[in-house]
TrEMBL record:
Pathway: Metabolic intermediate biosynthesis; chorismate biosynthesis; chorismate from D-erythrose 4-phosphate and phosphoenolpyruvate: step 5/7. Belongs to the shikimate kinase family. Mg(2+) binds at residue 15. This is Shikimate kinase.
Length: 175
């Protein structure tokens, strides 16, 4: 039985690597944010605004527990998911956890071109975006490093790099 949780900051490649890895292992891929949006027919942003952060994080935890019952699956968590409640301990107890570690400069480059897709980043200057990423990583690092495995996901810019990363991840996890 395969149950692998991919964690890391936004832009780390959880969806990109997760989809490719799931294809390689011939198992379903679940993006927790997409799962929540589909269940509630609202965007994460709408749910966050309507409910407030505390209520949203509770809903997120409940959905994490739900998808954690699935077998033979790759699950990509939201960037903040590991940082609330006992989510990291819970994931470690339910399957293999992988922190997709990416240098802040690479995250900056990836997120800089995706600001229109991520409302929390809109309107930020380059300096503000760099500071935002550094601050968030500093706060979240104590949670991310609790993952059983740490994986350098800094090389996902081409199909060849993604394929190489999939093989490295497969070797790391022994699947």
């Amino acid at each position: 039985m395969i149950r692998i949780f991919l964690t890391g900051y936004m832009g780390a490649g959880k969806t990109t690597l997760g989809k490719a890895f799931a294809r390689e292992l011939n198992v379903p891929f679940i993006d927790l944010d997409w799962y929540i949006e589909e269940r509630f027919h609202k965007s994460i942003r709408e749910l966050f605004v309507e409910r407030g952060e505390a209520s949203f994080r509770e809903l997120e935890r409940n959905m994490l527990h739900e998808v954690s019952e699935f077998e033979d699956v790759i699950i990509s968590t939201g960037g903040g998911t590991p940082c609330f409640f006992d989510n990291m301990d819970y994931m470690n107890g339910r399957g293999q956890t992988v922190f997709l570690d990416v240098h802040p400069d690479i995250l900056f480059n990836r997120l800089r071109v995706a600001t229109h897709q991520r409302p929390i980043l809109q309107g930020k200057t380059d300096g503000e975006l760099r500071a935002f990423i550094a601050d968030a990583l500093e706060k979240r690092a104590p949670f991310y490093v609790q993952a059983r495995y740490r994986f350098d996901a800094g090389h996902l810019e081409s199909r060849r790099q993604i394929a190489g990363s999939v093989q490295q991840l497969r070797s790391l996890l022994g699947v």
